[in-house]
């Protein structure tokens, strides 16, 4: 997905400010490390940065025109002086780094400027990493390197020390929600998707996932019976919940969805209605917010968080959920 500086500054203000300042002051580092979770826009930012460096007709000191030959070639992925290296199978191999070094011993085709981007840099083999290290130790004034990673701790410290780190943070939920809505995701779905994942492609996939849609319905039903008909809660748990949330990851998702419902009640109590992730349940949750004390709400949310912790301790999921239902109703503990 292409990116412009206005979007970049909105989504990643720290990273955008750092990179923009380097371009404006003509102090672009020899090597950068773009690190952050999947889906935070690191790759798109590296292409935007490349456009800003290569563009022959910038609109200002930073903003690329998007129309010149350099911009078009970068957007099409075929600029001769911009090289992107990605894992070949499970790793980035030494041959790939050697080929890159050979390429960079040549002069630039379009200009003196050259740039390379290494995607998933943590997947370099030891030999590939050592080969890259030699490359980084012999910096060329016109060469810019960007290493993109989700796991900087797996990269050689000697490589890290030669890179300027640019951290990409998870998108604020309200910005991610708008981004999803702009791509056609329904306004009712978007806030919940933004709450359960910060990965754009995963959010798009979940929006069309029948299992996820059913999970939302089952969670809402359990929440309702816990209030309206507590005696039926165990039956509902057995009939629907345990049959749908079979695997540990699925059960964890179910607990997340349930926790977000109780958080919505809290948001209403705090007057933060604009942060609801279940906006279509607003009327029901407003009624609950009036009838529930903040202390009781805190206890219920704590019970769900404790259930998530116990889930990772391999406690029987049936027993875990039965205990959670009792805790949410204010019953005794036996786990």
Task: Describe the structure concisely.
The protein is of the alpha/beta class. 56% of the residues lie in helices and 8% in strands.
Looking at this protein, list some descriptive labels.
335 residues, alpha/beta, five-stranded parallel beta sheet, 56% helix, elongated, DNA-directed DNA polymerase, transferase, EC 2.7.7.7, DNA-directed DNA polymerase activity, DNA_Rep/Repair_Clamp_Loader
CATH homologous superfamily designation of the largest domain: P-loop containing nucleotide triphosphate hydrolases
Briefly note the CATH topology name of the largest domain.
Rossmann fold
In percent, how helical is the residue content?
Answer: 55-70%
Assign the CATH architecture of the largest domain. 3-Layer(aba) Sandwich
State the end-to-end distance: 47 Å
Low-confidence stretches: 331-335
Strand order, biggest sheet?
2-3-4-1-5
SSE order, one letter for each helix or strand: HHEHHEHEHEHEHHHHHHHHH
Largest sheet: 5 strands, parallel
Please, how many helices? 16
- What structural class results from the helix and strand content? alpha/beta
Count the strands?
Answer: 5
Rg for CA atoms? 25 Å
Could you tell me the mean pLDDT? Answer: 91
The gross shape turns out to be elongated
Pfam families: DNA_pol3_delta2, DNApol3-delta_C
Protein name: DNA polymerase III subunit delta'
InterPro entries: DNA_pol_HolB, DNA_pol_III_delta_C, DNA_Rep/Repair_Clamp_Loader, P-loop_NTPase
Keywords: DNA replication, DNA-directed DNA polymerase, Nucleotidyltransferase, Transferase
């Amino acid at each position: 997905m292409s990116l412009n500086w206005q979007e970049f500054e909105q989504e990643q203000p720290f990273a955008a400010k750092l990179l923009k300042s380097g371009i404006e002051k003509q102090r672009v580092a020899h090597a950068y490390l773009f690190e952050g979770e999947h889906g935070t826009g690191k790759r798109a930012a590296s292409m935007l940065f490349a456009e800003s460096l290569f563009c022959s007709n910038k609109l200002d000191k930073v903003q690329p025109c998007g129309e010149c030959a350099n911009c078009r070639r970068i957007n099409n992925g075929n600029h001769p002086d911009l090289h992107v290296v990605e894992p070949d199978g499970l790793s980035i191999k030494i041959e790939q780094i050697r080929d890159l070094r050979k390429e960079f011993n040549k002069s630039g085709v379009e200009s003196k400027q050259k740039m390379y981007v290494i995607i998933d840099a943590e997947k370099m083999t030891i030999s590939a990493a050592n080969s890259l290290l030699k490359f980084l130790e012999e910096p060329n004034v016109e060469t810019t390197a960007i290493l993109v990673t989700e796991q900087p701790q797996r990269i050689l410290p000697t490589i890290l020390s030669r890179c300027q780190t640019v951290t990409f943070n998870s998108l604020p939920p309200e910005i991610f929600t708008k981004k999803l809505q702009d791509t056609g995701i329904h306004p009712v779905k978007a806030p919940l998707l933004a709450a359960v994942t910060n990965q754009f492609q995963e959010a798009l996939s979940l929006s069309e996932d029948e299992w996820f849609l059913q999970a939302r319905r089952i969670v809402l039903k359990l929440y309702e019976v816990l209030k309206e008909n507590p005696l039926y809660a165990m039956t509902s748990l057995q009939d629907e919940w345990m049959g749908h949330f079979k695997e540990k990851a699925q059960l964890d998702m179910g607990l997340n969805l349930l926790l977000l419902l109780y958080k919505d009640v809290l948001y209403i109590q705090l007057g933060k209605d604009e942060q609801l992730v279940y906006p279509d349940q607003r009327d029901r949750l407003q009624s609950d917010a009036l009838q529930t004390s903040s202390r009781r709400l805190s206890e219920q949310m704590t019970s769900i968080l404790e259930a998530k912790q116990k889930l990772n301790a391999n406690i029987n999921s049936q027993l875990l959920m039965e205990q959670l239902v009792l805790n949410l109703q204010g019953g005794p503990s036996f786990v």
